[in-house]
Design a protein that fits this description.
- The chain is of the alpha/beta class.
- It has a single domain, classed as Aldolase class I (TIM Barrel).
- It is globular.
- α2 packs parallel to α3, α4 packs across α6 and α6 packs parallel to α7.
- The strands form 2 sheets. An 8-stranded parallel barrel has the order 1-4-5-6-7-8-9-10, surrounded by 5 helices. A two-stranded antiparallel ribbon has the order 2-3.
- The structure holds 2-keto 3 deoxy 6 phospho gluconate.
- The site of 2-keto 3 deoxy 6 phospho gluconate has 14 residues, from loops.
- Homotetramer; dimer of dimers.
- Pathway: Carbohydrate acid metabolism; 2-dehydro-3-deoxy-D-gluconate degradation; D-glyceraldehyde 3-phosphate and pyruvate from 2-dehydro-3-deoxy-D-gluconate: step 2/2.
């Protein structure tokens, strides 16, 4: 069961800071992250240009071959250009959100999009299903009908929804997001988690996985609840922005800033987060 980081994209004065990205990737992989999901939600993928994503792909694959590159854009030309570029690298897979924003697409058109992706590359193609963000759901039945998907990242609070992919397509990889349910995802034997907290507490995720594998449910639960306490403070401040601050707090270095309209936290918000988290940090260290 893999711990996969939807890695943040560090910006400085509006520009992607590739060096910080590489250092951050190396650090979290050293601490137990198994693979990188690049240009996902936490990576602010939809806010990145084609050129920026190419640079991140190159940077990520200089650190590990276990890279899943999110290639979804609002136009097929950029998608195919990125997929072609990805072919140059020995990476694990490309993933895409379904075509988003436009409500007027038919099921047939969405399926056609994924089939075109599969036809354009020899790399495995994964579905990144995130209905709340994307505005459409590609469920297990539809994913199976598409016929060429090799994996899915399902971001959806419904566990049965995710298990259905595994049931209908036992041969594919199924990953789940949501920091608040990591222990449950490990417990039901999914292929792994892709969660934002892998950016700031990869070591805690490793401990949760170890506890679940040892069937020490109490310990897994105690660790999980501490993550949930972090989320309770960070979510109202804007979770995407908070992740940068949480990296600073837990990992002790400056990971750059997000890109507006994902605005960096204001100084009072940073203080509030740091104060609330210091007690949780102590409790995590004791477990
Ligand atoms: C999760 C999103 C959404 C992880 C990514 C991920 O960021 O690219 O907190 O469940 O809305 O899909 O971060 O997470 P929640 O793959």
């Amino acid at each position: 069961m893999d711990i996969i980081a939807p890695i943040i994209t560090p910006f400085r004065s509006g520009k992607v800071d590739v060096e910080t990205f590489i250092n951050h990737a190396k650090n979290i992989m050293k601490k137990g992250v198994d693979a990188l999901f690049v240009a996902g939600t936490t990576g602010l993928g939809p806010a990145l240009s084609l050129e920026e994503r190419k640079a991140l792909l190159e940077a990520a694959s200089s650190v590990t071959r276990r890279v899943i590159m999110q290639v979804g854009f609002l136009n097929l030309y950029d998608v195919l250009a990125l997929v072609k570029y990805a072919e140059k690298f020995d990476i694990e897979a490309v993933a895409s959100v379904p075509p988003y924003y436009f409500p007027g697409l038919s099921q047939r058109q969405v399926a056609k999009y994924f089939r075109e992706l599969c036809a354009a590359t020899s790399l495995p193609v994964y579905l990144y299903n995130y209905p709340a963000a994307v505005g459409r759901n590609v469920d297990a039945e539809m994913a199976k009908a598409i016929g060429c998907l090799k994996g899915v990242k399902d971001t959806n609070p419904d566990l049965a929804h995710t298990l259905a992919y595994k049931r209908l397509m036992p041969e594919i990889k199924a990953y789940k997001g949501s920091d608040s349910l990591v222990m449950a995802f490990f417990a039901v034997g999914l292929d792994g988690v892709i969660v934002a907290s892998a950016n700031y507490i990869p070591d805690v995720l490793v401990k949760i996985r170890d506890a679940v594998l040892r069937r020490d449910v109490e310990k897994a639960k105690r660790l999980q609840f501490l993550i949930n306490e972090i989320l309770e403070v960070a979510t109202p401040l804007g979770y995407n922005s908070s992740v940068y601050e949480l990296v600073r707090i837990f990992q002790g270095y400056d990971p750059g800033e997000p890109r507006p309209p994902i605005y960096p936290l204001e100084s009072e918000e940073r203080e509030k987060l740091a104060k609330a988290v210091s007690r949780i940090k102590e409790a995590l260290n004791k477990l």
